[in-house]
Amino acid sequence: MIQLENVTTTFGAGEENFTAVNNVSLKIPAGSIHGIIGFSGAGKSTLLRNINLLQRPTAGHVFIGGVDLTELDEAALREQRRQIGMIFQHFNLLNNRTALQNVELNLKFAGVPKKDRRRRALEALDIVDLAEKAQSYPGQLSGGQKQRISIARALATEPKVLLCDEPTSAVDPRTTSSVLQYLVDINASLGITTVLVTHEMNVVKAIADTVSVMEDGSVVEEFALDALKTEAFVPGTSIGRYLVSDELKVARNNSSQAIRPAVFA
Question: Could you list the residue ranges that cross the membrane (predicted)?
């Protein structure tokens, strides 16, 4: 479904040149949930934005459903992006629109009829426990509530691909659990391919099928999350080995219980 071929993203020029993503190749199967982890500055969010070309790569190719997005003109790219939902870390809400109108906006751009827009937007707000804030403006909401509105906005469009940039970073643990459960449910029922960037390791452990570990702009390790259930499995990088630290072994043994987020720092 998603394939990156030798993707590099560089900012600046000359001595100010900085490579945020360095020659990354990655395949994410249709219908899977793929986590991207790493420390701050590893290039995770830039790589995520490369997938829908919100940040166009300096080099390389990005394929979604067999279509090379890097070869499309602007009109064709806009059409392809209608199939890609995105949850932003910093909300990106319009201050002059209510919560309901913010959620409806993506549905309007996607061509959903007005009567269906209202219903689906209200359903999405209910998923993140903010139906009662439908007529509130962003300025009247807390930071956590704003993030939950942006999550509802992305989920309401029922996209084929969902890109999540730290989607639970500004919400409380109870809401984190409900949001993650919804992501799992829509992935299972609709087969939405999901890519998740996060610092919360239990978020990745709770919902991902596979994970890429990033360091200094490169993907340094990839493995299936099922491998963590095997005592003999030892990741090849220090970041990867953090996943099977004593603390996380305890969480792994209790994986059948409710999701309990733990910060990856």
Answer: none
With residue 11 as reference, give the H or E element that holds it: strand 2-11
C-alpha distances in angstroms, 149 versus 33, 99, 197? 22, 6, 18
Cα–Cα distance measured from residue 154 to residue 150, given in angstroms and rounded to the nearest whole number: 6
**Cα(78)–Cα(144) distance, integer angstroms:** 29
Name the strand (E) or helix (H) holding 23: strand 18-28
Termini Cα distance of the chain: 30
Query: From its phi and psi, is residue 143 left (phi > 0), alpha (psi between -120 and 50) or beta?
Result: alpha
Residue 31 — left, alpha, or beta (φ > 0 → left; ψ -120 to 50 → alpha)?
Answer: left
- Rounded Cα gap, residues 107 and 119, in angstroms: 11
User: Of 19-23, 32-36, 104-108, where does mean pLDDT reach its minimum?
Assistant: 104-108
> What pLDDT does residue 257 have?
44
Interacting residues of 221 by C-beta distance below 8 A, sequence separation 6+: 212, 213, 235, 236, 237, 239, 240
pTM: 0.83
Is residue 120 within 8 A of residue 177, CB to CB? The reply is no
Q: Let me know: does 187 contact 28? Beta carbons within 8 Å.
A: no
Residue 6's pLDDT band (cuts 50, 70, 90): very high
Angle at 194 between CA 189 and CA 199, to 5 degrees: 130
Of 22-36, 82-96, 161-175, give the range with the top mean pLDDT.
22-36
